[in-house]
Amino acid sequence: MFAQRSKQWMLALSLSLGCLLNAGATEVAGVKLDDAVQVAGNELKLNGAGIRYKAIFKVYVAALYLKEKKNTVPDVLASQGPRRVAITMLRDLSNEDFGRGFMQGIQQNTDKSEKLKMTSQFLRFGELFASVPELKKGDTMIVDWVPNQGTIVMLNGKKMGEPYPDLAFYNAILRIWLGDSPVDKGLKKAMLAEQDERGGNNR
């Protein structure tokens, strides 16, 4: 009798723990995203997340984390403290295609004067993609802004190169998705926690 009750208690405890663990995660296209993450000792909340489409193909899931939720681009770019963009690949992609998408997004959403000021950082950022032969389905790229350190890029938990010091550089990266000419308008809405024009939202 005791053994049976013990098993029932353990089963109930396991189910309860499972519910608690799942309660702190959001799922987008099969990718589980934490509702909160720690960056440089600060808790950041999931602001919004969505799918980057190219034609009809799902390319990756992108998630934006901030200290406080923001729904407009100016508020996101002016937000204080650390920030994070987490990208999880939904298909294999060559470094050339992935890097071209990033650099094109920067070119289309950054004015000439800013690009001139940060030429060396943009060149180094472009070289970063050349160092990775291919991005595989399931790979995760993290792009963090850490005050007093800069923009830190990690691929599957491994730091890639030295930080990029200017906040303007991080904002230029954010405008890939949030600028006036974003790479995907539906993804922009999702990262800002707005209704996705494809009929879904960031959840």
Automatic annotation (TrEMBL):
Residues 1-25 form the signal peptide. Pfam families: Chalcone_3. InterPro entries: Chalcone_isomerase (IPR016087), Chalcone_isomerase_3-sand (IPR016088), Chalcone_isomerase_sf (IPR036298). Residues 25-192 form the Chalcone isomerase domain. Keywords: Signal. This is Chalcone isomerase domain-containing protein. It comes from Undibacterium squillarum.
